[in-house]
Design brief:
This protein is mostly beta strands. The protein contains one helix and eleven strands. 4% of the residues lie in helices and 51% in strands. The strands form two sheets. Strands 1, 2, 4, 8, 10 and 11 form a six-stranded antiparallel β-sheet that branches. Strands 3, 5, 6, 7 and 9 form a five-stranded antiparallel β-sheet that branches.
Length: 167
């Protein structure tokens, strides 16, 4: 959203410049979903993690702010490196993926079977141009055959928050 300056006259009179839509930027609704059901993946193809939430925008001009906190465990029982990645989808359309390669990757020199427990944050401002129900979800994939990526490992909580922002 562009910032607008209100000059002294507008401030005293209480008028908003015409370049700012009245109500723009207000939070209209918030939806939150959580899961702690473990979902494992050993595939280099993306698959659902079980973290999903739906929202119905009140106006086609609204934007949806998506805030994700994805808990995970990565391991490779037979190698010194392990990697994976997450992405956000609107219904079946990918709207956010961190870079062209894998954003989660590490190597433990001289040690086999690396394992890491952590959480991964993703934030994205979407413009769906819709007043129909929209489902947002996350998917994960591993870097290479043999890697394991467990979303919500050992019952750790993952959450997704959807905020409708007036356009």
């Amino acid at each position: 959203m562009a910032l607008s300056k209100i000059d002294g006259t507008n401030f005293i009179e209480g008028t908003v410049p015409s370049t700012v839509a009245p109500g723009a930027g207000k939070v209209l609704q918030v939806v939150q979903a959580e899961t702690n059901s473990e979902v494992g993946s050993t595939s280099t193809s993306y698959a659902d993690t079980g973290l999903t939430a739906a929202i119905t925008p009140s106006a086609a001009s609204s934007k949806i702010l998506i805030l994700v906190q994805q808990a995970f465990e990565m391991q490779d029982p037979g190698d010194t490196t392990v990697g994976g990645n997450f992405k956000i989808l609107r219904d079946s359309t990918v709207i956010y993926k961190d870079g062209p390669a894998f954003s989660l990757y590490f190597n433990i020199v001289g040690a086999d079977s690396p394992r890491m427990y952590n959480s991964y944050s993703m934030n994205y401002l979407d413009s769906p141009s819709s007043t129909s129900s929209i489902t947002y979800k996350t998917q994960s994939a591993v870097y290479q055959s043999g890697d394991i990526l467990n979303a919500q490992s050992s019952g750790a909580d993952s959450s997704i928050i959807l905020m409708e922002i007036a356009g």
